């Protein structure tokens, strides 16, 4: 049985891959991992969508994830949680858990980027398989050190 840890989206970064394409890197961390997070490469459209869901960018029209949330809510359902489950053939897998109006829980296979894009919009909890911790990397590799030093006077 897979054990999950409560996780968080530590950061979403934009970068250029080895082919010159704009991509994103989602850093998913868990308290148990300290200053480490699992980096997951995602597409530029999903990067934009997650940043919009976080309120970091504005976009004049609804994106696909906005539409999906509107449909879910119009049907009386809600995103209960999302899980990042495994790494299979160099591809991360995720599951979206949706509770319908009758209280029945439905699960949907998803890309982690789509699952996180939904979770950030509705403030749903994110969980990650504990076993994925072996892929966690030091955050200093991705994030600059905090600016300014606190000094004692």
What's the structural blueprint in terms of helices and strands?
Blueprint: E1 4-16, E2 22-30, E3 36-43, H1 44-53, H2 64-74, E4 78-88, E5 91-99, E6 105-110, H3 112-122, E7 126-129, E8 137-138
Parallel strand pairs: 4-7
Antiparallel strand pairs: 1-2, 1-7, 2-3, 3-8, 4-5, 5-6
Helix pairs in contact: 1-3, 2-3
Pfam families: BFN_dom (PF02577)
Protein name: BFN domain-containing protein
Domain BFN: 4-140
Offer a quick outline of the entry.
Pfam families: BFN_dom (PF02577). This protein is of the alpha+beta class.
Summarize model confidence as the mean pLDDT: 93
Shape: globular
Instruction: Specify the number of helices.
Output: 3
Q: Which series of helices and strands comes N to C?
A: EEEHHEEEHEE
Write out the strand line-up for the largest beta sheet, numbering strands in chain order: 6-5-4-7-1-2-3-8
CATH 4th-level superfamily: Bifunctional nuclease domain
Radius of gyration from the alpha-carbon trace, in angstroms: 17 Å
Per CATH, the class reads Alpha Beta
What share of residues is helical?
10-25%
Largest sheet: 8 strands, mixed
CATH architecture: Roll
Estimate nothing, just give the exact number of structural domains.
Answer: 1
**Class by SSE composition:** alpha+beta
| Proportion of residues in β-strands | 35-45%
Total number of strands: 8
User: N- to C-terminal separation?
Assistant: 53 Å
- CATH topology-level name: Bifunctional nuclease domain
Uncertain runs are: none
InterPro entries: BFN_sf, Bi_nuclease_dom
Domain BFN: 4-140
Pfam families: BFN_dom
Organism: Pyrobaculum neutrophilum (strain DSM 2338 / JCM 9278 / NBRC 100436 / V24Sta)
């Amino acid at each position: 049985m897979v054990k999950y840890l409560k996780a968080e989206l530590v950061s979403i970064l934009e970068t250029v891959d080895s082919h010159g394409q704009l991509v994103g890197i989602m850093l998913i961390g868990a308290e148990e991992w300290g200053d480490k997070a699992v980096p997951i490469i995602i597409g530029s459209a999903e990067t934009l969508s997650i940043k919009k869901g976080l309120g970091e960018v504005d976009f004049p029209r609804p994106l696909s994830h906005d539409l999906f949330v509107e449909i879910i809510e119009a049907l009386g359902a809600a995103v209960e949680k999302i899980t990042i489950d495994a790494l299979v053939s160099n591809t991360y897998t995720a599951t979206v858990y949706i509770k319908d109006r009758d209280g029945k829980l439905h699960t949907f296979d998803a890309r982690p980027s789509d699952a996180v894009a939904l979770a950030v919009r509705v403030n749903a909890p994110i969980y990650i398989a504990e076993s994925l911790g072996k892929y966690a990397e030091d955050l200093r590799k991705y994030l600059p050190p905090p600016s300014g030093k606190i000094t004692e006077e």
